[in-house]
Amino acid sequence: LSRPAERSATAPVNKVEVGDITPRFETRTLANGMKVMVVTNREVPYASVQLGIKNGAWTEKNRGAASMAMAMLTKGTASRSEAQMAHDLEFAAINLNGYADMDSASISMGCVTDQLDRAFDLIGDAVCNPAFDANEFGKLRKQMRAGMVISQASPEYLAEREMRTRLYGAHPYARDASGEIADVDALTVDDCKAWWSEFAHPETAVLVCSGDIDADRAVKLAETAFKDWKAGKG
Fold first, then answer.
1. Which of 54, 134, 179, 189 is deepest in the core (most CB within 10 A)?
2. pTM
3. Is the dihedral of CA 221, 223, 228, 231 positive or negative?
4. Residue 181 CB-density burial (10 A; 0-12 exposed, 13-18 middle, 19+ buried)
5. How would you write the pLDDT of the chain (234 residues) with one tens digit per residue?
6. Pairing relationship of beta strands 205-211 and 35-40 according to DSSP bridges
């Protein structure tokens, strides 16, 4: 084959423009030791917030405790029942979810800008005053178990579990952060309380705020929301 004479011998590629794509951010530290990082973006009136804790499932004594504890944060507080928490979140269209992986744990939040005060109040209440209600724990455990029965019967899960076992052996990475069905069945609400009390502390946490929020407002909201979260041994 030969290239037609009218066809260019070089690819029609535009000149590459070199630019700095590093996001601009500010970092502050609250009195309780929690770091706050803010990446401001005013494109849309929406803000995302993620509270990351530098301890994950690898720290737990009972498998699945970290994952279950993080999920329990949205299931009621000392001042709000699970139903009230769900109502407040839905009424203001606020997303609030807790989860854990092997290396860390997080609770994430998202809302339109005019709901930031309410949203920070809710995430602060969830973190500072978790109820760990036994009845809500029982309901959540049934939900998680039902999901596991389905997912752990899939070829994808079985293949992934086998690969993790072969790769990591006795290392914590060999298992899923949520544990197996037997692990969830063996968990108690006290296991969740114990993990949260020992490993969730502000000095090992980072609050990352992005979107339509600046550093001064983020710090002011965080100071109010997390003022009762005391430093510990985590």
1. 179
2. 0.86
3. positive
4. middle
5. 788 888 888 888 888 888 887 888 999 999 999 999 999 999 999 999 999 999 999 999 999 999 999 999 999 999 999 999 999 999 999 999 999 999 999 999 999 999 999 999 999 999 999 999 999 999 999 999 999 999 988 999 999 999 999 999 989 899 999 999 999 999 999 999 999 999 999 999 999 999 999 999 999 999 999 999 998 754
6. parallel
Question: 75 is written with which tokens?
Answer: 């299931």
Encoding tokens for residue 79? 């001042």
Task: Look at residues 128, 3, 113 and name the one whose alpha carbon lies nearest to residue 48.
Answer: 113
Q: Give me 35's structure tokens.
A: 């770091």
Which contacts (CB < 8 Å, 24+ apart) does range 85-90 have?
Answer: 85/122, 85/126, 88/118, 88/122, 89/122
Residues 6+ apart with CB under 8 A from 44: 211, 212
* Cα dihedral 204/207/208/214 (nearest 10): -140
Supply the DSSP string of 29-41, one letter for each residue.
E-TTS-EEEEEE-
Tell me the Ramachandran region of residue 154: left when phi exceeds 0, alpha when psi lies from -120 to 50, beta otherwise: beta
Q: How far is CA 116 from the centre of its chain?
A: 18
Residue at token pair 């993620």: 50
Q: What tokens does 141 get?
A: 């455990």
User: Residue 14 CA to chain centroid, in angstroms?
Assistant: 40
